[in-house]
Amino acid sequence: MSRRLLGSVRARATLAATLVVAVALLAAGASVLLALRSNLTDQASSEAESSARKVAVSMATGTAPDGLDLPDGDDTPVQVVDSDGRLLAASEDLERISGTGSSAVRPVTAPADGDGGDDDGGSDRHGGKGGQDDSYAYGEIADDAERSEGSATVDGETRDYRLAALEVKKTRQGDLTVYAGASLSAEQSAVGTALTVMLIGFPALLGVVAAVTWLVTRRALRPVEGIRSEMSAITASQDLARRVPEPGTHDEVARLARTTNETLAALETSVERQRRFVADASHELRSPIASLRTQLEVGAAHPELLDVDGAVADTVRLQELAAGLLLLARLDAGERPGEARVDLAALAGEELSQRPAGPVAVRTRLDPVEVAGSRSQLARVVGNLLDNAQRHARTRVDIAVRAEGPWAVVEVGDDGAGVPEAERERIFERFVRLDDARARDDGGAGLGLAIARDVAVRHGGALTVRSSPAGGALFELRLPVA
Q: Do 244 and 229 share a structural domain?
């Protein structure tokens, strides 16, 4: 059951939609987290550089390292380091720091050069915060700060920081470097919160997408299931008159239903035609077989009463009927007509020469024109048209062969009663005879015109009928010129 479910279109569509949305959410979530982290890290870097620059400005304008007013260490730990790596000043309560030029957290207690200067300046330098000494020269602050990441422990609490290192040159203490840090707690908190929201929200969103896709696909495929179940019922019942339901939409499913119904209608017509064909063939075969059997039984009992001519006539009729049925079977099976070149004028002349002279005159106008196809099948067409015309003509039959542009045209007309307009398509159906009694007496089974049209269509042409100038029927065969 699970394999069947996973193999369904609905399951595959749901899985595909969920995977696509999952990939899109992962890409979008990663982009959001990276952008958020980058923005908050840049913000922390700017804060760290701003703090370092404030301390550097104070030192450059003459404030001694031990007299600096350093910011609170919890938010911005600060170190002032000389070129020898000695710590000259540090934030209060700083217990540990990494990522700077010095890991020391307690500044040295004496000036680097030991020169106290004059007494007034010395007392000010070692006095309270903010004292200044005229012996300090103005320093030069670097334009850009170097940025890095590190950690620090302040008052027992360890945090990650974004650090900025800014150089101050040419001070009384020599070249100094100010390290200032900005806490990354806000960045870590924001990224963590966003990640938590994504970890909770994304699965829920994927669940919603999967559920919606499942329901929408189920609704979209419901007509398909109706078509499938109805087709299954039709197959089981073999009732080709049934039709699948057609939804009122204009989508692919509706077109599938309409096409299926058209196929069922064509199949029903074909099966019904086949049934009629079998029934008619059985009926047509029964009469000559029964007649032939009767004559043979009479001849066996009374040889002097045997009607040999009648037996031969019934045998010929059976032979012609069997040949016609076999040809129709081959045509229905899709037999290709072949590619031989056939001269229709010569073919018509041969068919006429095989017929004995009779009371019906035959007038001809035969122009040579060649077509490609099966000579035997085309001879059967011309012969059937001539047989039909001679059977219904009163005094004459006209046959003409000519070329009209890309078409070869064969016309066979008579001066008989003609074909009523309402019956002009019906006469091309199999076993259809407008005059059943006369057709039976003459040996016709109603297959000649049906065979002629099928052969014409298989050769890429057409066979039609209309009124002839003589008042009877005029059959026109059109085939592509070779």
A: no
